[in-house]
Design brief:
Length: 306
């Protein structure tokens, strides 16, 4: 008989289990228990545990007198990063494209934190594919003891075939190239330092699923997240973190008020400093961590995505 071996297999491997139904039930029970325990562990680790992280003294850790460099520093999350760095005692380099807005932020920092040194670099990252662009920024950073790089600059675009081609080109360039090149040029300086150094990369929750209404934006955010995670493995002595928040109150979200899925930039940044050096990524406060967990671990018919 051609299928004798199949019958033999059934009789020896399958039939005894169904014959002894209690053994089958036990196996299903333990598989279910292992499955639920695993997901509970992931939930506690990624959603609950970060609430107990304490930031400690970041200035002592990364070096008193050192500088934080922030791209996209004239508004939103980047502007708040500048204030939060200054509040913690770091000197701050602000890089953005609008001279009045950027100098306005610098003035505010100087008034609020008179002991903090500041420096403004005006650069439009839409031009960052041009020859010598990053070398020019690096010349202006010469001689500074940089300890923290915040790769924040980013822009948004919706649609695809009906979106002006140059908008899609700008999103691709501004969201990806500065993160690669600023890290490439500043990392050798960070590696030379005796004290700890850090790179903070802005990704987004849009990195966790493809967004049909803003496919190019979410694609660039996956790029940011993967670059960050790859570099973290490559340079384990540098604290590299990817930030993946949902909505943050800023000009990008038309100043959407803090609420069930929206947080203030300061909340994201406090959670970022608490997670820095402990975790490869954070989406920010507990509500954003819960939303991210939902997207990553619940089936798409519940989350409504994919
Ligand atoms: N807001 C959110 O809900 C959210 C959520 C997840 C991730 N993110 C990410 O967080 C980052 C910051 O977002 P945000 O909400 O703070 O945005 P934002 O309020 O629009 O601020 C963006 C900053 O980048 C500057 N900038 C824009 N284009 C530039 C260019 N070509 N060259 C130099 N600087 C430029 C802006 O300057 P101007 O004001 O002069 O344009 C501004 O300082 C982005 O990477 C974004 O993808 C935001």
């Amino acid at each position: 008989m051609p299928h004798d071996w199949l019958i033999l297999l059934y009789k020896t491997m399958v039939y005894p289990w169904f014959n002894d139904f209690s053994l089958f039930k036990d196996i299903v029970f333990y598989i279910g228990l292992a499955f639920i325990s695993f997901h509970l562990y992931v939930f506690l680790k990624t959603v609950i545990a970060p609430s107990f992280f304490s930031e400690g003294n970041v200035l002592q850790k990364y070096g008193p007198g050192s500088w934080g460099v922030v791209t996209g520093a004239s508004a939103g999350i980047g502007k708040e990063f500048c204030f939060q760095l200054a509040q913690r005692g770091f000197n701050v380099v602000l890089i953005a494209k609008n001279p009045e807005k950027t100098r306005g932020v610098e003035e505010e920092i100087n008034q609020r934190y008179p002991s903090v040194k500041t420096k403004v670099i005006i650069s439009d990252f839409r031009n960052s594919a041009k020859e010598g662009f990053f070398e020019d920024i690096m010349r202006q950073l010469e001689g500074l003891d940089i300890s923290i790089l915040v790769n924040n600059v980013g822009i948004y675009a919706k649609g695809f075939h009906d979106t002006p081609a140059h908008d899609l080109k700008n999103v691709t360039i501004v969201n990806c190239l500065p993160q690669v090149m600023m890290s490439r040029y500043i990392l050798p300086k960070l590696l030379e330092r005796k004290q700890k150094s850090a790179i903070i990369n802005m990704a987004s929750i849009a990195a966790t699923f493809p967004r049909t209404r803003a496919a190019i934006y979410s694609a660039t955010k996956v790029f940011n997240d993967y670059l960050s995670r790859g570099l973290r493995d490559l340079y384990p002595n540098i604290d590299i973190i990817s930030l993946r928040p949902k909505f943050i109150t800023s000009q990008m979200t038309d100043f959407k008020k803090p609420g069930i899925d929206t947080s203030h930039p300061a909340s994201l940044i406090n959670n970022c400093f608490a997670a820095l050096g402990k975790s490869p990524n954070t989406s920010g406060d507990i509500k954003h961590r819960f939303i991210e967990w939902r997207y990553l671990h619940l089936p798409s018919f519940i989350t409504g995505f994919r």
